[in-house]
Amino acid sequence: MAQVSVVKQIGPSSEKTRGAILDLIRSSGTVSRNELVELSGLTGASITRIVKALIEAGLVIETGYGDSTGGKRPTLLELNPRSRYAVGLSLDDAHLTYAVTDLGGRLVGRLVTRGTGQEAPGAVIERVAGELELLLAGLQIDRASVVGIGVAGAGLDIRSRAERASLNAEEWENFAVRDALAASSGLPVVRENDAACAAIGQFWVGRLSASQDFATLYMATGFGCGIVEHGSLARGASSNVGEIGHMVLEVDGPPCWCGSRGCLEMLAAPRRVISDAMAVEGLAAELGLSGAEADVRHDFSAVGRAAAQGHTACVALIEGSARYVAQATLSVVNLLDLDRVYLAGPGFAEAGPIYLRVIRDAVGGLARVRDIHRVEVVLSDPARDAAAVGAASLALQQSLTPHARVGRS
Fold this sequence. Notes:
- This is Sugar kinase.
- Belongs to the ROK (NagC/XylR) family.
- This protein is of the alpha/beta class.
- It has 3 domains: 2-79, Arc Repressor Mutant, subunit A (Orthogonal Bundle); 84-202 and 387-404, Nucleotidyltransferase, domain 5; 209-384, 2-Layer Sandwich (Nucleotidyltransferase, domain 5).
- It has helices at residues 2-10, 15-28, 33-40, 44-56, 121-138, 177-185, 194-205, 264-268, 270-278, 283-287, 296-308, 312-336, 352-366, 386-400; strands at 31-32, 60-65, 75-79, 85-90, 95-102, 107-114, 146-152, 189-192, 214-219, 223-229, 232-233, 340-344, 376-379.
- Strand 10 and strand 11 (232-233) form a beta hairpin.
- The chain is globular and about 75 Å long.
- The model is unreliable at 1-5 and 155-169 (pLDDT under 50).
């Protein structure tokens, strides 16, 4: 198993090994010390020492007894969920979504406020720090138990530490979100794109083990793909892995802002769906679509709701988008030999079941490995909070399981 090799490579006395054992307890739900010995390959004495340290730190508790195999019944261990908390923030021009989770990734508090809009980055960060204080106070959570803040935002460009929150917010281009928020909040901050956060959230909250590699396809106004390998995010040479929105599906297709042609984003993203919807006679008036850039999310939600209710024209629009998304997903599955893909993000909130059906049909029927193993496609829940909850999970992972950290270039 992947967990065994990770622990053996790290060594029994390091902080990283302690994090690896904590991760085994997380993914197991409940587990005995003897089972940890089998899973990790460490000695019983090493596991006893590490578990004792985790209990003393308040991260792990003993919870009842397992079944006897002939001797003394084993004591079971599990995470102590209320011992630590993390905050996830989905940074977006439409709205800010805060998610406070416990150690197990369970949502304990949520807040949605106005987005970045045209507000200056410094003013937004100052507002975030104030809103965060009010949220924690309202939940009666001691700041000392908060391990950090995870920030999710679309379109990272990490060259020269620049971070881009939106194509429509140029002021954010060279604004160091992490440094500013860490200074104003007094808490450690980690920053990733929406898709990466959603993927880590699925890993942490879903109690997946480090032996389960998977991808999370995230759709908001565009597309991203977070890939988890051996419990860590795949990053690539410049930490920009997962740009599935710029996978070319039609070599002579419409030009994309990235400079290429026929990208998934130009063929299937919400903007394209709305553009096609505006060309259907009478549909804009029927659904109240404006077709304006500022209303893309609102308009796409309206089309998605109508499609979910069986509106013929809207079903055709969503299925047209879903076919392209399915082909892109199929290519990722074939390239990486995955057995699981999650669909997450607000773009799947209303018409998710239609996308799920079309993608499952394509992947199930055409995946190169279909005769060797099944490829599971799962609609994540809740779709709208995936980035914020995932950002909180990222903060937990970075703080408590250092063996899973992968530094950026």
